[in-house]
Amino acid sequence: MSLLGEDIVTEDGLFVVNMGPQHPSTHGVLHLKVWLDGETIHKIEPHMGYIHRSIEKMSENLSYRNFIFATSRMDYLAAHINNEACALAVEKGLGIQATPRAKVIRILMGELTRLASHQLWWGCTGLDLGAVSPFFYAFRDREAINDIMEETCGARLTQNYVVPGGVMFDIHPNFQKRTKEAIANFKRNLTDYDKLLTGNVIFENRTKGVGILTKEDAISFGVTGPTARASGLSCDVRKWFPYSGYENVEFDEILATEGDCFARYMCRMAEMRQSVRIIEQLIDNIPEGDFQEKTKAVIKLPKGEFYQRVETPRGELGVFIVSDGAASPYRVKYRSPGFSNLSALSTMAKGGKIGDLVAIMATIDLVIPDIDR
Amino acid sequence: MKEPGYFKTIYLSVKSLLTGMRMTGYYFTHPKETHTEQYPDNRATLKMMDRFRGEVIMPHDETNEHRCTGCQSCEIACPNGSIKIITKQEVNAEGKKKKAIDTWVYHLDMCTMCNLCIVACPTDAIKMGQKFEHSVFDKSLLKKILNEPGSKVKSGVE
């Protein structure tokens, strides 16, 4: 039997299955070609490019002020952090720093983004593994954070709130009150989360010991973020290469050693508590002053190469700008966390069952536009 | 991981099922704690946040005057090319020639609501509106002309 000139059953007797863009358990449009031996996974090949929008190439024709907006569409669940990475790279080139007030606002917004992203991941993980109700509870809590974003930034997902030198406008008068309410609610709801999913026997059986990623593999594939930290690899950019004043706040880097799906799950759950801790430290201590450093109307970076990395909810995002001295970048390269994390999928899933693949994909927390860009 | 026994597994499964059902039951019996908004039935009371970005609008005052001088800063600032300004030369009362806008074309279908044009405007002529229900059947209806017919620039706005 053959399909498009390719054998559905290979010479070794492996059965080729397309886990295609239409599969309901994948978020976004990722096409996985899976070689199966019975129900056991032999090999996985991710096929990408379904939502490639050439953001890198587009940026070459946009000015340094304008190219930031497009990065909101890369990792749409962490748009604020993507924007921040670009702004920091431009600031590095200009040799300026954001004002102290802007820095604190950026951290607060970044951690709120991380919370919102992890909540959505928590809901979707439950949904992928057959539990529907977590999805609704996660979205309820995420809604509070989206409201904060809407009130201060003007948009719920694609905020475009960060500009080189600071933030676009000052925080809304209600921001502190609303954030405190949302955080207080969220802390109470976290116990519900644990009740619903963490202690659930079906969930534990489906995730414990499944999709193990060793520390060595994590290093060799360039895996970052909670996925790597669950394997014991310390790689939190906020700790190792602090930016925006993360060196002044107290938080722990969450590490686990098991490297399986449950460890990745617990890592992210613990990270949410750390984000809450960071927000609680800063919410009453926003320094007074300007929210934006004065920059020229047309930003021109000096000739050279500038690299900035930040920690998104999924891992390390790197922005690499090559400048030839003009008003728009000569070349922009994004090192997206999802792309590297996806490359380890085949190693993680090899030898497992096809049902485990969904659990592994859910706990890597893939955001497909981030992979394709 | 050590496998629990047969009866232990049954006990744990029933227990975690009941834990989940208890939470669901709690919200079922406490409808005030749910957060669902009855859109579109609540349209009359639905108020968007004041900074919410729904579309670009150009406010006109009661004498049909706007604040746009036709400097085209917004057109340059727009990353998608969704703003096109056609200017004309006008002769004012003193006989001097002055640049003014003829049509301020706004392509809503290309706009990503990034707010860069509003930030770039030196005279605060445009701002973001809160309307968000933009669906139409014909794509050409999304091309809008923001300056009203017969309007002119407010005196004193440079």
Give an overview of the whole structure.
The complex is a heterodimer of chains A (373) and B (158). By secondary structure, chain A is of the alpha+beta class. Chain A has one domain: Cytochrome-c3 Hydrogenase, chain B, CATH 1.10.645.10. Helix content of chain A is 45%, strand content 14%. Chain A contains 14 helices and ten strands. Chain A has helices at residues 55-59, 79-94, 100-128, 133-153, 175-198, 201-207, 215-221, 226-229, 237-240, 261-282, 337-343, 345-349, 354-364, 368-372, and strands at residues 2-3, 6-7, 15-19, 31-37, 40-47, 162-163, 166-167, 304-312, 315-323, 331-335. The longest helix of chain A has 29 residues, at 100-128. Chain A is globular. Chain B is of the alpha+beta class and 158 residues long. Chain B folds into two domains: 1-36; 55-153, Alpha-Beta Plaits (2-Layer Sandwich). Chain B has three helices and seven strands. In chain B, strand 3 (83-91) and strand 4 (97-107) form a beta hairpin. Chain B is elongated. The A-B interface holds A 62, 65-67, 69-70, 131, 133, 140, 143, 147, 150-155, 158, 160, 163, 168-169, 172, 192, 195-196, 199-202, 208-209 and B 1, 9, 12-13, 15-16, 19-20, 23-24, 34-35, 48-49, 51-53, 77-79, 112-116, 119, 128.
The radius of gyration computed from the alpha-carbon positions of chain A, rounded to a whole number of angstroms, is: 21 Å
Strand content of chain B: 15-25%
Main structural class of chain B: alpha+beta
CATH-defined architecture of chain A? Orthogonal Bundle
Spatial arrangement of strands, main beta sheet of chain B: 3-4-6
Largest sheet of chain B: 3 strands, antiparallel
Low-pLDDT residue spans of chain A: none
Physical arrangement of strands within the biggest beta sheet of chain A:
3-4-5
Output mean pLDDT of chain A.
85
